[in-house]
């Protein structure tokens, strides 16, 4: 009897074993299908522009909306996960992504493409990606860091394969049929979601406790209705206001932004950086084609970026985790952003294919540093118990500049008829953001050291100092957070 009970307990704990590795494989595929997908949009830029007689600015709204919604839909996805679970969110996202791309193949104007491929596919990708990463926290405890690192390789695989597949299908059957096929491919997110079956935890999870906490309120409401009474209207209105404020506080932590100087500097810097970060991914292929590079070779440039990312990103993550860089990761991040900005000048010097390959190699190395450090630095400047809410505001702000950056640059290219301004623009935003973050954190660190030297007591010292936020490792019996925002750069 005792052996049967032990076996039942083991079966009820699926973390770090068995089916968890199938879930990890599904997460790798999900990240390639969702985060890797926008990398191929530049391949269709010239064809869409020609078919719809659209300007550079009008055409660039399509990928901008897709990427902005993918990054900024985090709070909505988290509400969906908390309400219906990760499996439902992933499968709903796959359905939306597929429907969005199938609908895009029938679009008759560029504005229709904004709704179908931009909004619907972007939102579906957001649901699938973020819920897929969240479920890894339930299936992995001991190997959670390794699982997340392995899952992130899916992004690099997507960057490598999507452009090559896109160019082949575009040459063979045109962009409409290609989008139709893409809709079928993205429906595989539903298959990945089906693999991510709910975890039966032995201890009470936060999801279970939140549901149990809601039960008394529901029972009391039911009792009031059965007695023929209803709450006072003013009390109902006050309750709704309180609930709304609590939800904003939970998912969009404006109080952290106002009080934590490190978080304030970092959020402003990354938001400004995103104005120029996505520009090379959208305009590199049309820039190369305009300068005489064959279409197939131009599509290969994006694949080179993804291929190098597969090897460099894990190495960068391991390097930044060394104790030498403890408390100094923000400076590594600023250096990576600076290198990313400086690399754009290579494109201005020459548009030869061999020179563009060198550019892609340097850009990929810089991007690997940015991707590996973005959320690690955020964990350094924000207490872990408020990380989810801080990340919610962070992703919404960066998605705003991701949305408006490419169209504004496209407008500049339309006015000047010179693609060089794409890379000038990108360099300006990246270099200025890198200098702002590096110098601001250096000044903040000196200010804190001078305060320590003068022994002036601070009301809440940890809120204003950039330092390493230690976190307690979770035990196997403790379930991970129910709601987690994750994005990738």
UniProtKB/TrEMBL annotation:
Topology of this chain in the membrane: Multi-pass membrane protein
Residue ranges constituting the Major facilitator superfamily (MFS) profile domain according to the UniProt record: 20-450
Residue ranges with Polar residues bias: 223-235
Stored InterPro entries: MFS, MFS_dom, MFS_trans_sf, Proton-linked_MCT
Classification via Pfam families: MFS_1
GO MF terms, alphabetically ordered: monocarboxylic acid transmembrane transporter activity
Chain residue ranges for the region called Disordered: 206-235
Bias (Basic and acidic residues) ranges: 212-221
Entry's transmembrane regions: 21-45, 61-81, 88-106, 112-139, 146-165, 177-196, 265-286, 298-318, 330-350, 356-378, 390-409, 421-444
Record keywords: Membrane, Transmembrane, Transmembrane helix
Record's GO cellular component terms: basolateral plasma membrane
Name of the featured protein: MOT6 protein
Protein source organism: Cepphus grylle
Gene, per the UniProt record: Slc16a5
